[in-house]
Amino acid sequence: MPSLLRHHRLKLFAVLLAANLALLLHLAAGDPIPPRDWVLLDIFGEGGAALLALAWLGLVLKSRPAGRVTNLLTLGLGCVFFSWWTDCLDEFIRLPEQVHWDHWLESVPMPLGLLLLTYGLYHWHHEQLAISAQMEKRERLFREHLLFDKLTPLAGAGYLRRQLQLSLAESVREGQPLSLVAVDLDHFDAINQRFGHAEGDAVLQAVTQLLLLNLRRQDLLCRLAGDRFVILLPHTGEAQARQLAGEMALAVEHLAHKTRQHGERLPLSASVASAMALDEDAEQLLRRLNLALARAKQSLALSA
Ligand SMILES: Nc1nc2c(ncn2[C@@H]2O[C@H](COP(=O)(O)OP(=O)(O)OP(=O)(O)O)[C@@H](O)[C@H]2O)c(=O)[nH]1
């Protein structure tokens, strides 16, 4: 069972138990309808709707940690599923005329479920706003999970290019400057070699958090490749970008990252470069930034 689903075993069990009880109740009180009398359209419509509600429930449980919002969504979807399920049962089991409880089972859970679902979605909306505020510096008003790497988790080169094109157009429209800063860790390969890939991963995660802490709300941090990060800085001129780049380099130098195995401090440093957008497109600007970074790396090699 997938790990998140494991936390919701009880909820799933309760929904399936309720569905089973309804089935047993119908079987005890009524008679099976022979297949020749089945109304396939109704079975397809009501059964299909019940199955879809169950699939939604599975998706919600699989993607959410336990908590109040999840409970509300589960209860809501559980009621909706139950209502469609009992509606479908009377396509297979004929109940006597004098039986009325089946109408209650069909009709009451649906509005109740929809109310709970609405209340749950309302709280989900607030929860999402809080999460989006935390993710602001990683996504800049656009979410596409496929473009994010799982390690840091930051968006990559494709996402940066797309955002850069949009921001360049915006900066021309508004007559505002826009700059990029590149941050590339020095001798990162040596960390991988000496302490292992897992330690290298931990360094990348720590540096990501550090850079995010040092950014402003409107900035966007992306991981271009390996140990290279690029920051998109809207409303930022050349001097300010250079200053921010220097701050990032200083922050990395002062990061006291300890190895996981021996708790030994790893001395870290990063080469940085900045470029302000001139009258050029995203590719030209990125090329200029890469050239500036290559120059910074060259002077690092010469001074070693
Ligand atoms: N641990 C870890 N390593 C990675 C990841 N992605 C790329 N790398 C490694 O990062 C290293 C980058 O090497 P280089 O580009 O030579 O960078 P460097 O050692 O910092 O060299 P300079 O930039 O010239 O200072 C390579 O060894 C890659 O295998 C990752 O996700 N995790």
UniProtKB/TrEMBL annotation:
It comes from the Bacteria. It is an enzyme of class 2 (transferase). The lineage of its organism: Bacteria, Pseudomonadati, Pseudomonadota, Gammaproteobacteria, Pseudomonadales. Its EC number is 2.7.7.65. Coiled coil: none annotated. It comes from Azotobacter chroococcum NCIMB 8003. The chain crosses the membrane at residues 40-61, 68-85. GO terms for cellular component: plasma membrane. Residues 176-304 form the GGDEF domain. This is diguanylate cyclase. It catalyses: 2 GTP = 3',3'-c-di-GMP + 2 diphosphate. PANTHER family: DIGUANYLATE CYCLASE DGCM-RELATED, REGULATORY COMPONENTS OF SENSORY TRANSDUCTION SYSTEM. GO terms for biological process: cell adhesion involved in single-species biofilm formation; negative regulation of bacterial-type flagellum-dependent cell motility. One of its GO terms (molecular function) is diguanylate cyclase activity. Pfam families: GGDEF. Keywords: Membrane, Transmembrane, Transmembrane helix.
